[in-house]
Specification:
The chain crosses the membrane at residues 111-129, 135-151, 324-345, 351-374, 779-800, 816-833, 862-883, 903-924, 956-976, 988-1008. Residues 22-33 have a biased composition (Low complexity). Residues 1-11 have a biased composition (Acidic residues). It is an enzyme of class 7 (translocase). The protein is α+β, with helices and mostly antiparallel strands. Helix content is 44%, strand content 14%. It is built from 36 helices and 27 strands. The strands form five sheets. Strands 10-27-26-25-11-22-24-23 form an eight-stranded mixed β-sheet, with helices on both faces. A hairpin with a 4-residue loop joins strand 17 and strand 18. Helix 11 (349-361) runs parallel beside helix 30 and helix 31 (855-880) runs antiparallel to helix 36. It is elongated and about 120 Å long.
Amino acid sequence: MGTENELDVEGQTEPPIRGLTSHSVSNSASIAPSASPTLAGTLVTDDDSAPAFHPELAHTLSAPGVCVLLSTDADHGLDPAEAARRLQHHGPNTVEGAKGLSVWTILLRQVSNSLTLVLVITMVLSFAIHDNIEGGVIVAVIVFNIVVGFLQDLRAEQTIQALYALSAPTCKALRAGRVETIRAEDLVPGDIVRLGVGDVVPADLRLSHAINLSTDEALLTGESLAVSKHAELVLKDRDVPLGDRTNMVYSASTITRGRATGIVVATGMVTEVGKIAMLLRGGRGPARDENVRGVRRILNKIQDVFRVLLGLDGTPLQVTLSKFALLLFALAILLAITVFSTSRWHVTSEVLIYGICVAVAVIPESLIAVLTIATALGTRSMARGNVIIRRLAALEAVGGVTNICSDKTGTLTQGKMVAKRVWLADGTTASVTDTTHPFDPASGLVLVNGMPPTMAEKQPAALKDFMETIALCNNSTVTEEHTAQGEPTEIALQVLAQRFGMGKPTLLASTDFALLAEFGFDSSCKRMTVIYTDGTTATAHTKGALEALLPLMKLSDDKRVRIVAQADELAAEGLRVLCVARREVDAETFAVDMSLYPGGDAGDRRGAAETGLTFVGLVGIYDPPRPESAAAVKKCQDAGITVHMLTGDHVTTATTIAREIGILKGSGGIMVAGEFDALTEEEVDKLPALPLVLARCSPATKVRMVEAMHRRKAFCVMTGDGVNDSPALKKSDVGIAMGLNGSDVAKEAADMVLTDDNFASIVTAIEEGRRLFDNIQKFLLHLLVSNIAQVLLLLIGLAFKDAHGVSVFPLSPLEILWANLVTSSFLALGLGLEDAQPDVMLRPPHDLAVGIFTRELIVDKFVYGTAMGGLCLAAFSSVAYGMPGANGLGEGCNEQWAPQCAVAFRARATTFATLTFLLLVTAWEAKHFTRSLFNMHPETDKGAFSVFRTVWRNRFLFGAVSAGFVIAFPVVYLPVVNRTVFKHDAITWEWGVVGACTVVYVAIVEAWKAGKRRCGMGRVRMEGVVGV
């Protein structure tokens, strides 16, 4: 097979130029010093005198040393009786699933917020005083809220059980000297396991024997290439990153090449995958000291339960609204007490109803329903934008992010290798840029010596030899449909050859090439050679690591120095460098049966073919960024969002990609995970800014990064696709997984899934989240203005008394519920569907400390609410006292219709109509907090009739306002409905009062907005945002 990974534990995706570094490995069989007894996963044998074995240190031990500590025999394996005993002791080799969400937990999530609890209390009080209509309406609201949220979360939320699928169902183990196929869950520490191509590694193994072995560990470490493994190595450093432990293979990784035998050192939850599962089980809740005992522990549990029930655990908006609901509940109690106090605590049935009526008026009953529906509709919009929302709360949360922590491989990059740079022996250079499809030879821009080549220039002699060699010394297949099979490196080389019209199928079809011999890639020599003949001459084509080919090529010292310098230059760009060479050979020497090659004189034949090679050129290969990544990163930075790259890849590669897409612009901001992990929390917190690039990350490193951001009060998104990303996805404020190439574990741990694996879709999600945040402010303004107006009206309305001194309702309880639940709900929902404002991605994230209730929102709601409440009072007073009837406000007019209640009922109808019309106008005015309704889109709509285009932009809101206007008339005029249900009567001349109040209200709002514009209030300013 093709050249894949070089033998260097410091960097598999970035091979060295001059071979191994002596400080990294040791061929000694000595056993490392005993580890700290506090290390997790300690395995102890029955012999008390035997030293403890720590799976975390298996890479620092020789294979015989591991066998000694685990009391096993590499040639014989465990006896069945001993295996059974160990299975009883260690348990099955299975990974426990993370704590999934049951149906009841999802249901509890819907009711675990303070506003729902307030509605439940109001419902109970309504039924207690036999106000069944009001109670029934509130029941309907509660049920609707719960059903919508429950169905949405139930469809999206699944328990995190994908880890089960990562376990190999069966494996080959050596038991009592015989190789048996056993269930993977029956493996125990000390078992000897044999692996072949395509096998899923069933447990964490210390390799004892390996031939040409490579494994795909991308889902565990983030490596973009398969990693070569070497059983003979013994690493000295106990803290070597997971991806550099080249004498180990880990559970859930896949064998891509070769075969091996290994010793099981960890099973079940002690494996690296098991540790990830343990991290996932922690969830997002507040960290608690597990050492706390007794009363304090009980109090912590009680506190956690109350936080969940009251909705104080969740996104900033959820917590803010829950706190707001508690404030409203306290205010409702205070207002009810105020009502009872005015009656000198002579609480009759009418006083009790009035008190509850005032309490109901202060609660925005439809808020949860509107928020849930607006968010659900946002998820549908995001689905069209290739983003699946798994939790409704995640959509509004993503709009407030301050930092994005992104994986590199497959997220910011394409996850596939591309040949980027070529340097030939005669100095010719070629480059490939702007590739959008790694398997499409026509994708991207090809330059030869810095200029676009013509077809004739594509095949000079040196370039032709180079392309011929990389095409023929290649076992990959690239189809015309742009699909590929084979090693990633070989695929990249084959595509490069096809760009110049010299792909392997083309060469074989146009020339009488015949394969004489193939010497496959061997990790011990790090090269591959094939011998082809065209009928007249035979040529050996070789590719491999430069340090492996340098001794085999005929080179002058000056030429050798130039080649090494050029290779160093390519490597410094984060490219993986391969050397290409060739020579003519004697065809008769290799014209023998290929079946003879595995034995006999194969070594001599290979040596003959790979001696005296002629240098052809160097090629630099890398995993290119996605074409849209740079623009997406720039858009995030313009929006005041800091983008961090957290990757398992090497620091040079990560730095190159980070600079290419704009994450890094100057020096600094780069750190290796080992350095970051060595810092204490205090030292991390003292850093001026958290690193923009963290290389060689482990799952624990990513979690530490998220925790460090939380300590800095940042609100972070974590993106990723591998198993190694899952703990941080779960720990972050919003986890985003890749849908196409992401692991099931990552998807289950995430709040959102990108169906196109496109980093740019995250920007779309953030933009949608910000739009939703803005719109939540708009419909909050609308709903709260209505509540303030009603409270003001009802409190001052205590002064409107009948002949017996009983206060007369300016609005009946059902009129209040109608205004809050019917009229306002659809208007608020229409505001929730407003388009994003033009500057939505040109301003910094909203202040999380302030939250949804900004100073502007609070001031506006009191200004509008006071104006609306005052005009409703004016409407009621104009009818009740401006044209009083013979019986004044009558008697008992709060409970039922009577002839003496005509004035009170007409005044109440006028007030209801005024409130309704003012709410309709407020819906349009709330479209923008500072711009005039009559000039809301000066960029596109100008002239006297621009207001009509403004109100027509949002068709749903236009329909809601129109429907609210039309429905007001039947409510006022329908017999029985008006007098019996709503406690008001038909009106005539009073419509003039309604119209006058509406005109005055619009004038007040427009004057307030004009004052804000003149004083510069409410304008969005792009201020400096310092990344954490």
